[in-house]
C-alpha cells in the first residue's frame, strides 16, 4: 500500500470487520483508503451520501484501491437518529435512481421476503431456533409472509445502526459502510430505524419527515423486516463473539413483537 502513495505516508489499519480499510497520513493530510470497494462507491460519493471520493487506482495484482477525504466528525448517538435530517437523507437514498441503476448494473437482484425467510432458516443454528422468543418470531414471520408484498423496490443500506451515520465537524451527515447494500422494500431500512430508535408515539411524525404516511400495511412490513433483520443480527453477533449485542437483540424481539 505504501508504494501507492509514497514512503512518506503513514498507513495504519482503520479497523472494521473486513480488515480492508486503512488511514493514510502525511504532512497534515489524511485519507481513508479501502481495498476492493465496489464501483457503487463512486455513485454514493456523487450523490453526497458518503464522503467525497478523491481517486481510484488499480494495483498490479488486480486489487482496486479507493481514497476518500478523511472527515473529522463523529458517529451519531442513538437519540440523534430521530432527527429530521436522518429521515431526509434516508428518503434521498431510497428515491435515488442513480443508486438503483448502478446496483442493477452490478448484477444485484431484488431481495424478496421469501428469500430473507430462507436465509434466516439456513443461518440460524439449532440453539438459536430453540430459543423461546426466536421460535415465536419465526412463527410470526411465516404467518405474515404472504401479506407483506410491496411493489416498490429501492436501494437499501441494510445496516442503519447509529454507528454507520457520520456527522462531520462541518455539520454534514453521511451514511457509510455500504457493503450490505441491497435492492429491497424500503421497509427493510425503515423497520430497523423505527423499532430500534424511534419511540412509538413519534413514528408517525418521523415517517412524515421521510415522506410517507403511517399505514397498517407499512407498519406490518416494517415490523416483519425489523424482526427478520434482528434475527440475522443475533446469529451474526453470536458467531463473532459479540455476546452483549446478541443479548440486546434477544431483548428486542419481544419488544417488536408486542
Number of DSSP E strands: 10
**From the helix content, strand content and strand pairing, which structural class follows?**
alpha+beta
Helix and strand sequence: HEEEHEEEHHHHHEEEEHHHH
What would you call the shape? globular
Total of helices: 11
- Name given to the CATH homologous superfamily of the largest domain: Aminoglycoside phosphotransferase (APH), C-terminal lobe
Strand order of the largest sheet: 1-2-3-5-4
Which stretches are poorly predicted, pLDDT < 50 over at least 5 residues?
A: none
Report, as a whole number of angstroms, the end-to-end distance: 51 Å
Biggest sheet, open or closed, and with what strands and sense? 5 strands, antiparallel
Rounded to an integer in angstroms, the radius of gyration calculated over CA atoms is: 19 Å
- CATH architecture term of the largest domain: Alpha-Beta Complex
- Classify the helix fraction into a percent range: 40-55%
Amino acid at each position: 500500500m505504501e508504494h501507492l502513495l509514497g514512503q512518506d505516508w503513514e498507513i495504519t489499519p482503520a479497523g472494521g470487520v473486513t480488515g480492508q480499510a486503512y488511514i493514510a497520513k502525511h504532512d497534515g493530510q489524511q485519507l481513508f483508503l479501502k481495498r476492493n470497494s465496489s464501483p457503487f462507491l463512486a455513485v454514493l460519493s456523487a450523490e453526497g451520501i458518503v464522503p467525497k471520493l478523491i481517486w481510484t487506482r488499480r494495483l498490479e495484482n488486480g486489487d482496486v484501491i479507493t481514497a476518500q477525504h478523511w472527515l473529522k466528525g463523529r458517529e451519531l448517538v442513538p437519540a440523534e437518529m430521530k432527527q429530521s435530517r436522518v429521515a431526509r437523507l434516508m428518503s434521498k437514498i431510497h428515491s435515488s435512481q442513480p443508486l438503483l441503476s448502478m446496483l442493477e448494473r452490478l448484477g444485484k437482484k431484488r431481495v424478496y421476503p421469501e428469500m430473507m425467510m430462507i436465509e434466516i432458516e439456513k443461518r440460524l443454528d439449532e440453539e438459536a431456533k430453540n430459543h423461546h422468543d426466536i421460535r415465536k418470531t419465526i412463527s410470526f414471520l411465516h404467518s405474515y409472509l404472504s401479506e407483506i408484498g410491496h411493489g416498490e423496490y429501492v436501494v437499501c443500506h441494510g445496516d442503519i445502526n447509529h454507528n454507520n451515520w457520520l456527522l462531520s465537524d462541518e455539520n454534514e451527515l453521511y451514511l457509510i459502510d455500504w457493503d450490505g447494500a441491497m435492492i429491497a422494500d424500503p421497509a427493510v431500512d425503515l423497520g430497523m430505524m423505527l423499532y430500534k430508535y424511534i419511540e412509538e408515539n413519534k413514528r408517525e411524525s418521523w415517517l412524515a419527515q421521510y415522506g410517507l404516511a403511517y399505514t397498517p400495511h407499512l407498519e406490518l412490513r416494517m415490523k416483519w423486516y425489523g424482526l427478520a433483520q434482528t434475527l440475522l443480527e443475533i446469529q451474526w453477533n453470536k458467531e463473532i463473539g459479540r455476546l452483549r449485542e446478541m443479548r440486546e437483540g434477544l431483548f428486542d424481539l419481544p419488544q417488536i413483537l408486542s
